[in-house]
Amino acid sequence: PSTPLLRGVNLTEIESLALSSQLNMADGHARQELTKSQRSIVDELPDLFAKAAAQPVDDLEREAHRAYLHLLHQHSYPTRPGGVLTCYSSSVAMEILARSLVPAGGGPVALVHPTFDNIPDLLRGNGLRLLPVEEDVLHEGSVSAAVPEGVRCLFITTPNNPTGRVLAEQRLAAIAAECAARDVVLALDTSFRGFDTRSHYDHYTVLRDSGCRWVVIEDTGKLWATLDLKVGLLASSDHVGLPLAKIHSDILLGVSPFVLVLVTRFAEDAAAGGLADLHRFIADNRALVRATLADVPDLAFPDGDARVSVERVDLGERRCLDVWTRLRQSGIYVLPCSQFHWADPARGDHSLRIALARVPGALEAAVRALRAVLLSP
Ligand SMILES: N=C(N)NC[C@@H](O)CC(=O)C(=O)O
Predict the structure, then answer these.
(1) Ligand 1 centroid to 318 CA: how many Å?
(2) Which of 5, 80, 202, 331 has a 20 to 30 A CA-CA distance from 177?
(3) pLDDT higher than threshold 80 for residue 50
(4) SS3 assignment, position 369
């Protein structure tokens, strides 16, 4: 049986246990130090606050959308009113999408497997039935198998969490064409795309050209240590046929203009070289994890070419709950992977996920402690 003690506990509840720990390697939020140029943005906060108060919020919203999406080479995003709805977080965007799918009727939602469990939880919480689509089926093989028969929506996290796997441009085009032919809504969660340039082809051009009904959820919260000052973006095709704007209005009037200005400034800093620096920083932290654990027997890193800000560790015969529990006794937190396998948790019972957007010294201390636990019976 899978790790019973964590049954009924979701990943975010496990992450919340770690929030006050100095050695929190659990959640995928950005907790690294600010760079020099980012600190100078923080030094400007009083002026940014004044700018946010003085300018029309529509302008600030358009500026934030453009700065963030152009940073990631997404030039063809919709600019029509309501084409990109701004939310407090990507999970709020996810909840709006899930609620909007319910009245549409029709079959289940096909969802990539594994992926972060708040996505299936939000979909199921709205009464939607789910069908898992394994990553290999999604990324390779027949396109009709990637879009199961009878589904109302296909939901893909790309880059995926925790694997880092990126949907290639040609594959997105093929899946979008299949969705167009079968009138299936194609939904993408691209929250981790900032870390991987392989996901920086213009998804909006591909989606638009396919003619399919589509939704894309973006998240500014994973990249920069802004204390979770962030926005989620809910973009959609003009013929998506879902009451996204209506449900969005049920949940919020708008996000803080101050956060919009902050996101714009951090995105501009990233475009001026900060994003490349961040990629090197994450790659160095990934290398630190792999080097520190290199001499541990019966251990593997299943996502060899992942670039996202998390790293999965395959523990061999060891159980993730046992390792997680022993680390927690020393105040060190990682994330067990059972719940990512939302349709078959046992498949995650022998792997952990380590957050990489962390101060290197803290990451090294945590991974050295993990190594000690793994080497002691
Ligand atoms: N609304 C939720 N549950 N937020 C947690 C989520 O941001 C953590 C995450 O995405 C990750 O740790 O990979």
Answers:
(1) 25
(2) 80
(3) yes
(4) helix
